[in-house]
Design brief:
Helix content: 40-55%
Distance between the termini: 26 Å
Number of strands: 12
Order of helices and strands: HHHHHHEEEEEHEEHEHEEHEHE
Oligomer: single chain
Strand content: 15-25%
Bound molecules: flavin-adenine dinucleotide, protoporphyrin IX containing FE
């Protein structure tokens, strides 16, 4: 480990236990030195407070792996344009971070630590700003909701059309979505559930979670005619155009969205690769999106769909957690593997794939929560 990384890790041990305090100081400093910055953040900041600070700290801590982080930081900088972040805001935030660290650690802080955090923050901010400056796309697209269909009590399938030109993306990617009418400045990521279409429309499958802000608004409050904002596409769960391997796709609940997009994409060109989709849910009511996939499979014999329920004894089909079910059909060693759904599902699926010795470079996944 080089000296910078060593200093960052060492100094972080002083603050680690006092994250709440650090977050408090950080936001207070930032909003005090530039009160206009408060308007960039959601009205309701509970729970979110730490997300930004944690992200900055994680980024700073991994500065010793710049190669790996470069593309991520550029994409993050591009994406930050949706928050109306300007280059000068990075300095204000950097100063607030340093002040907060000093205040939280008191006498234990040293000049060396100060310099290390300053250097690391600057390196990250420069990459993010470079990413933002190089992006020719708009910071976000306005899109009109043209279809809103409830599937069961918690799930909605939404279709929307960008009003300010097409939103270019690849099947399997996701975008950040804002519902400005109900929850201004609150953005969450949702997978696009269709391959790019000629009419540029986009489909989303949203499940409202417990007390979830944005998912509840998208499922229960949004109506046809409402406007959404969609930010630049992200994610690498896309098809490898050079691969000739068969595909294994594992989806839990609305994790089916990007898998459906991949199946549609493959249907445009595929003649030779088998695609096996395992779709898991707790009960059959949550298997909301199979009809469209069965329709695709009827015209494309290379596509097979295996639904499973983990807590519905009356379900005629596979029973059990989806990672146990697809394990029974393995081994999957020579497949390109795609997994999407809750963090628990992704973790279990990755364990099964590791047991099958699937090379990590042949696995792509999106976890819909913190892994
Ligand atoms: C790459 C990616 C793609 C995603 N794609 C989709 C998608 O296609 N469809 C979709 O519906 N969601 C998707 N998500 C999840 C989505 O981004 C939101 O996290 C989710 O909708 C919850 O947001 P919220 O504002 O409603 O909840 P928040 O207000 O953020 O959370 C409120 C409370 O709910 C809890 N909570 C948050 N998420 C969950 C959860 N999944 N299960 C149980 N409790 C939870 C939180 O801990 C918190 O206590 C995706 C996430 C990622 C990272
Ligand atoms: C080192 C620099 C920074 C890093 C690593 C960083 C990282 C992040 C990350 C990972 C998130 C979580 C959501 C997302 O992925 O978009 C986030 C949210 C956010 N960031 Fe940054 N950011 C940085 C600088 C800034 C600056 C300079 C501003 C402007 C003052 C800013 C404003 C925001 C806002 C408004 C949010 C949304 C917060 C919320 O929803 O509560 N960020 N940031």
């Amino acid at each position: 480990m080089d000296n910078l990384a060593q200093l960052l890790k060492e100094s972080w041990t002083l603050v680690e236990e006092q994250r709440d305090k650090l977050a408090g100081y950080f936001y207070a400093r930032m909003f005090l030195s530039d009160p206009t910055l408060r308007a960039l953040f959601p009205i309701q900041m509970d729970g979110q407070r730490d997300r930004l600070l944690e992200a900055i700290v994680t980024a700073v801590q991994t500065i010793d792996d710049p190669e790996n982080f470069d593309e991520y930081l550029r994409a993050l900088g591009r994406d930050h344009r949706k928050y109306h972040v300007k280059p000068e805001h990075y300095d204000t935030m950097g100063a607030a971070l340093l002040d907060a660290l000093r205040q939280a650690t008191g006498d234990q802080w040293s000049v060396e630590y100060d310099q290390a955090w300053r250097d690391a923050y600057r390196a990250i901010a420069e990459r993010m700003q470079a990413g933002a400056a190089a992006d020719e796309n708009p910071p976000f697209w306005h899109a009109e909701v043209i279809g809103h269909e409830r599937r069961g009590s918690d799930i909605a399938v939404l279709t929307c059309r960008p009003l300010t030109g097409p939103l270019p993306y690849r099947a399997g990617q996701y975008v950040s979505v804002e519902v400005p009418l109900h929850l201004p400045r609150m953005w969450r990521t949702y997978s696009i559930a269709n391959a790019p279409r000629e009419d540029h429309t986009l489909e989303f499958h949203v499940r409202s979670v417990g007390a979830g802000w944005v998912s509840s608004a998208l499922v229960r409050r949004v109506r046809v005619g409402d406007l959404l904002r969609l930010a630049a596409p992200m994610g690498s769960m896309v098809l490898d155009p050079h691969s000739e391997r068969d595909l294994l796709c594992v989806a839990g609940g609305v994790g089916l969205a990007p898998i459906k997009a991949l199946a549609e994409e493959l249907a445009r060109t595929n003649r030779t690769r088998w695609m096996h989709v395992f779709a898991g849910a707790t009960t059959r009511d949550e298997l909301y999106g199979l009809a469209e996939l069965y329709e695709l499979a009827a015209n494309h014999p290379w596509l097979s769909i295996i639904p499973a329920c983990s807590a519905d004894p009356g379900f005629v089909g596979e029973q059990g957690e989806i990672s146990e079910v697809f394990a029974r059909y393995g081994p999957w060693t020579t497949h390109d593997c795609y997994v999407s759904g809750s963090a628990a599902l992704v973790r279990a699926a990755l364990r099964t794939l590791a047991a099958d010795d699937v090379p990590p470079e042949n696995i792509r996944y999106d976890a819909f929560g913190d892994l």
